[in-house]
Amino acid sequence: MFATFRAFQSRTGGLRPAALTTAAAEGSPSGASERRPRGVGHKRRVLAGPFATMILGDLGAEVIKVEKPGQFRALLPSNKGNYMIKPTCCLGVGDDTRAWGPPFVGSESVYFLSINRNKKSLAVDLKNPRGAEVVRELAGVCDVLVENYLPGKLQEMGLGFEQLGGVNPQLIYCSISGYGQTGPQAQSPGYDSIASAVSGMMHITGPEDGEPVRPGVAMTDLATGLYAHGAIMAALLQRHKTGRGGHIDCNLLSSQVSCLSHIAANYLNAGKEARRWGTAHESIVPYQGFKTKDGHIVVAAGNDKQFVRVCQVLELIELTQDPNYKSNKLRVKNRKKLLHTLSQRFQQEKTADWLRRFEGLGVPVGPINSIREVFSEPQTCICLERFLAVVHPTMFLRFRPLRYRLLCCAVDWLLILLDCMTPLLVYRTILALLLICKSLLFFFILLYCGMRVLYVLKRPGPGDGGHGAESWNSMKKKAFKVIMITLVFNSSTQLLQLSLLGPVILYASITLILQITLVSLCISIVSSFITPLLYLHRAGKLPCINF
């Protein structure tokens, strides 16, 4: 990937020539260009590099993501030395994470969207000499290049640090790999799970007496992305002083080993092998999760004063007088007995009750939340207020937050409130019910239109059946037009609103079928009035009613 502060990383599939021209003209030492080609060689990481360049994009870089060619637009050099957009017809879908799901938002993978904001995408076939030339020209105008090919692959294509450094001496070239550029495993592909296993992270993660467990989030990838981002920022500062670029070697294994922190220090300095502790801390007690009456709570008593306060809240003040628990060292030594006593007490109350008791006492405590509960936390909601809604460049209104859409009726404004206040599943269920109600409303509108057309017929003159028949034929056509226009308009708006929410084909189908049924019923009801009313009307026994 390429990044430029005006960063340059390619990921999605189309770049306007103006954007590149601006980058070339205004590119500064703060620019960062990320290049993450995936079409050649092994694709090692699908998170570390994109995460690093996403942060650069958050800081203001213009990032262009390079992907393998697919059925989207590619940027190719024109004969005028500039760039032009040209459709490609090669097989492939770009970044692997585009297909990682469900869940999907429309046709986009949520996983892909989560790590690729602030980026433009570019499809380049590096097997084609023209594609390699595009990369060279981009490297010449960008500040930073981030790649995650197997070591040596890009050099074989003439796109290594030495070759591109000759094109742009100020280029900062960041290589992210599984095991680094040298060593016996340098040519081995590496993903987060593999690096997490090899680095010992899985060995220390999981239940105390259970099997090794993969962390719930790709922490190795995320840590590597953070290290790469920090190294790029440092390299930009260094370039500001020296005027020269450099080569950054960042890999998953080294990043994760460095994150072992005191676990590694315990072994290197004291020869102590680590083991799994579940939620507990091997050197501090109590410092772990406890089961409550309705969930779990984590208590972190990092010193003797906090331990005393924990005992006071639990109404176990006698523990503070026990010589076996006078210091943290003694508590660690007598861990099993102490934790058994604390666990029994915690199970007697609900999580909310314990949190209320600990409030204001200076003891770090917190519930173990589900993801749904995370986004219901008051503190999290304060953070969410700072979120910036970003319009997707290719999905148009489909991906825009619902509260920012221009809606045409009161029902749609109600959907705005539901969008903000209710979970997605509940929201879509209520949405379906509201759309059904809206269809019923249109049913009565159609019924009204049909009756209005019927009654608005002019009374024929005495004995003049032709005039009435002519009026009736004319109004039948008008009635048909009104009904069809209303049907088409209502169906299209309903389907459009549903499509804005993503893949809800079931709701759309049900709504459409229901609507067609209601319209058919409406026409049947109106038709049932036609014959007797027309007979009475032509016989002069039905007064004319004008609306």
Spatial extent as radius of gyration:
33 Å
Number of domains: 3
**What would you call the shape?**
flat
Please report which band the strand proportion falls in: under 5%, 5-15%, 15-25%, 25-35%, 35-45% or over 45%: 5-15%
Instruction: Report the structural category.
Output: alpha/beta
CATH uppermost class of the largest domain: Alpha Beta
- Strand order across the biggest sheet? 1-10-11-12
Number of helices: 20
Low-confidence parts? 5-45, 71-92, 396-409, 456-470, 531-547
| Helix content, binned percent | 40-55%
CATH homologous group name of the largest domain: Crotonobetainyl-coa:carnitine coa-transferase, domain 1
The CATH architecture designation of the largest domain is: 3-Layer(aba) Sandwich
Q: Main sheet, how many strands, which sense, barrel?
A: 4 strands, mixed
End-to-end C-alpha gap: 67 Å
Could you give the count of β-strands? Answer: 15
Overall mean confidence score, pLDDT? 72
What's the CATH topology name of the largest domain?
A: Rossmann fold
What tags apply to this protein structure?
alpha/beta, formyl-coa transferase, domain 3, single chain, 547 residues, 20 helices, flat, Rossmann fold, four-stranded mixed β-sheet, 3 domains, three-stranded antiparallel β-sheet
